[in-house]
Amino acid sequence: MQIGRQFVAKKALFSFLGSTFRIFDPEGRLQFFVKQKAFKLKEELNVFADEGQSNKRLTIKARSVLDFSGTYDVTDATSGEVVGACKREGMKSMFRDSWLVLGAGDELLGKCEEDSMLMAMLRRLIFKQWLPQKFTVKDASGHSLGTIRQRFNPFQISYDVNFEGGQNQDLEPRLGIALVVLLLAIEGRQG
What we know:
Porin
């Protein structure tokens, strides 16, 4: 599966009976499509290469029902390979969104964390969607793997994603896509 290192992810704020996410390459071509079903006790997100949902690429599935610190397994839909997992740090995420990126054996590969605690608290208490989020993704040693920056738009959640990495560090592309989808699906409910 060939996945770029830069893309734009979008989710409409107003949706009924589920949400739709689209991930585009820098030239604006659709790369991934997700239709999230509403009212699911155990979250499962299928990532497709097309809006017709005929070419499934990834499955992101919660390990348990309604888990505050949920772990979401990421599986390559083509090969069946378990790619890894993303785990929400529940208590930390109350104040500042924080996710662990795990390998196929649950080893820590990296972390995705919202910018500053002050900005995160202002966003939650006062400004809601009016104050865009910024996430930094780092490997287990603390080296930068990339950023996820929300654009200001009161009608649509939109992230500019850059996983170019640094110091020869890279985020597994499929885990990067899963992480962005989870930010749209899980953290996007707070706005």
